[in-house]
Sequence to fold (231 residues):
Amino acid sequence: MVYSKQVDSLIMMNAISYDLGPNELFQSIEAKQWDFAIEACKESAPQAEQWHFRFQDKSDKLRWKALPIHAAMIHGAPVTVIEALIRAYPKGIEEPDDQGLLPLHLAFRCSADNEVLSMLVRTYPAAVHIKDSRNHAPLSLIPTASALRWMKYANFGDCTAEHQQLLKKKRELEEKIELLLHEKREFEKELHRDKEMSRYLKISSLAIEDLKISEKFCVSTTMVGANDFLN
Fold:
């Protein structure tokens, strides 16, 4: 059978086919047996780094692949389980699944509690900026119904120095934009005044011209009247 490159890579990683049976750690996470999961991380730490995968029906096309930490996010594991998984396999927090989703992506999408989110961001701060295969950063996966709650959380301060620097630059740019908008408004006011003045001068000029014509007409009329009188 000819396998795809993706499947070949899974075989090379000694990944486990879900249909042939996941390892004990993965099973305990799916069953939400958190104490067993923590114990498995302590007693059999290598299980935390074993990928699990599943094919599409009757094909070698990959349906999904995940580490136990990905499964933990999906099944709403408490922070104690996440801590145990990270201790057992620290690099797992940096590993994307088949859709390019990091554990932090899944945590936001599955509405993990604040303790889990806080720990994930502190442990791997760069994850905040990493995008999945659909170009989505973790914060963009927040469920609409709870967006306000999670956006409040996002401002709690668990940000990297780089993120803080970006926020500072953002504030500086906003201030510059506000200054430019103020100058634009003042310029528009000045322009409006200039237009009004130009209009006024034009009207005044026309009025003066009308006055001169009127004066000439009056002088001409007076002279005609005087000539008629003398004759």
Remarks:
- The mean pLDDT is 79.
